[in-house]
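Retro notes
What went well: the complex prediction finally ran end to end.
Inputs used:
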Amino acid sequence: MSEGILLEPVARGTLLPEPARVARLESALPQVLAALEGETDEVALQATLACLLWETLPQVNWCGFYRRIGERLLAVGPYQGGMGCLRIPFERGVCGACARTETTQLVPDVHAFPGHIACDDATRSELVIPITVGGRLRAVLDLDSPHPGGFSAAEARILEALVVRAFSGEVHPSPGIG
Ligand code: SME
C-alpha cells in the first residue's frame, strides 16, 4: 500500500522556480505511477491522484477531477482544496472549455478567461487537462493556483502524459452501491 510519496517538504502556496517545479514533478512521477499500479477503479485512481498531485504541486490551491456525467455535463469528483462547484456544463468555465474541445487549457490569468468560474476568489491561474478513455472524454483534471502563471507548458506536458498512463489501462467506473 502506498504511504504517499517521498519529496522535499515545501510550504503550501509556494511557487517554486519553473525548473524546480519540473524537476519535482519528474521525481514524483515514478512514485505516483507505482502507487496507482494495478488499480482499475476510477474513483480510487482519481482520489489517489488528487492526493499525490496535491503533495507534489505546492503552488496549487485546488486539485481534482470533474467527471462527465452526461452528454455535456461535468460533476465534481475527488479533489483536494476548498469546496469546488458541483456541476459544470460544457458551455461554462475553463473546465467546460477543456471538456468541449478535449484540449488542455493552460490559463496564466483566469481574470482574462471569459466565463472563468471562481470557486475560490484567490485563484489566479489554472491548468485543466482532458482525460479520454476509449476515445471518449471521461473527466478533466483541474489544477488551480493563487499565483498568476502558476503552471508552465512543460508541467502541462508532463501531467498530460501522466493522466494518459494513469487512465489508459483497464479503467472501470465505480459500481453503484448494491
Ligand atoms: N475554475 C473552474 C471551476 C472549477 S473550481 O475552480 C474547482 C472553471 O472555470 O471551470
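What we learned: The radius of gyration is 15 Å.
What to try next: split runs per interface for comparison.
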